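Dear colleagues,

As part of the handover before I leave the project, I'm documenting each prediction I ran so the next person doesn't have to rerun anything. This entry is a single chain, and its sequence is reproduced below.
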Amino acid sequence: MVTRGPWIPVLNLCWLFYVVFAAVALPLSLPEKAFTWASLVAFLPLYYGAWRDNMARLPWYTLAIAVLGLASVWINTVFSFLIYAAAFVVFCGSRRQGLIGLAALLLSFCAVAAFSPRFNVFGMVFCVGICLVVAFFNVQYRNAAQADAGLRLSHEEVRRLAASAERERIGRDLHDSLGATLALIAVKSELAGRLLERDVNAARAQVADIEQVAREALTQVRAAVAGIRSALLAGELASARLLLETAGVAFAADVDSLPLSPEVESALALGLREAATNVQRHARAKAVRVTLRVDADRALMVIEDDGIGASLRKGHGLTGMEERLGAVGGSVEIATVRQGSSRGTRLSLRVPLPKTQEMETGAAASAPMVLGARPA
């Protein structure tokens, strides 16, 4: 079973307090006390299995805990185990099956408690109320987890579609331009071979043409490869937009087309993914803006939000981002910024540009890709 944190199962054992209290303080007979301690020993492995074992076996663990709880209600009025059964049953099967299981569990408890000589109406209402509250929060958690899983699938679909569209574009480019160029090279090569024995000068002219055409083909290949790199960052921008706007955060991006190596492009894209996830989870922001510009001899990506401000403690996400960018000669800077009475976070990612193209990119950051405008 998927847990919300390693400490949650331990904290939830607090409901066992009443089991120990019953065994120590309630006026139970010796067999009843022995059953109470034995029920506690039997419950712990069932509880561990419900948390850690395969989800397919969760209904069986839940049924065993429910039977143990109903037996305890009859013997020693302990309903603690039923709280755990109510917590687990809403994860069994579909959402509808989980709610049916919860109703069956509570009806069974009321039937047993009604005939128990030591159970009053207040105890019945109290137990049902606690079970309903615990089940409600777990239903909410299940719904949120399913929505989060659906959102992750949507992100992967956005990236897959971006990659698929880029493959189709490259295929068309190769077929329309590079294919014709290679066909021309083949024809001229055949002609040069025929002329070699009759007219050496004409053959040399054809070989020179072949060299020129081959250089043009190399330029076309490089252009196609550059397109692959731009698709990676474009896919992450689209995924970040989907993630944040689904969470009610306005997203805007103003990204220049820069000559980035595949490694640098990948580091920036993964940094953007981590930043968007952090904003969605922690920042409580209303708007996010992403920019990518040339800064001296480096490319500078800035992700800025108007949330509650940065936590300057390094977690696994920020450490991993620094390691990825450091591997390509880049750096990360995170700061809390103030805009009037509001605060926000600015994440700056700097990566090197190819040395041979610094002047060209500094003169013109071509074809800006604007994906939206930040709301006023």
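Residues 247-376 form a domain with the Heat Shock Protein 90 fold (CATH 3.30.565.10). Residues 356-376 have pLDDT under 50 and may be disordered.

All the best with the project,
I.
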